[in-house]
Design a protein that fits this description.
single chain; alpha/beta; Rossmann fold; 12% strand
Length: 208
Amino acid sequence: MFRALTLRYLALSCLLAGLALLAPAAQAAKTILVFGDSLSAGYGIAQDAAWPSLLARRLHEKRLDYTVVNASISGETTSGGRTRLDAALAKYAPQIVIIALGANDGLRGLPLAGMRDNLAAMTARAQGAKAKVLIVGQRLPPNYGDYATQFQKVYGEVAKARKAALVDFLLEGIATRPELFQADNMHPIAEAQPRLLDNVWRGLEPLL
């Protein structure tokens, strides 16, 4: 009987030790924070069809231990994002922050100096919180003239100055295909979301 009890004790000890080893792994999932506007919020489509949701699915399929928090808000500007970021960093403690803002600044013709300052400040704050940063660029229609040219440059300038990763254009391969947009001609349909994810993935994968 003593021998049986001893064996049970040893088996229980091994089981508890195994659970102790598994517990940290179960809690080890890292967080990717997506901080964007309607193009990332899934405007006009089902939320599970938006590219951040597809990103979560791809990470799971590749057995990469990350969760995705989509904190994107339709209509958001870089100024609005800047005011929200500190709280999001404190709440989610992300390892990677994807900043996909600026489109609404451009469409409203807001000063590019302010946009640059906001993107730089958000990147610095995220890096200060020990997160890697991926900046996702946007472009404006040609009818915006020189403003569109200078707008596009802002993303690269901030990424270079802050040593952050960069995706040049979220809508690469989509912008010139009207059939991939909703009736407003601004927001991609669900069928276009995998391409948006592929565009983001090129900049994100090296950070994982």
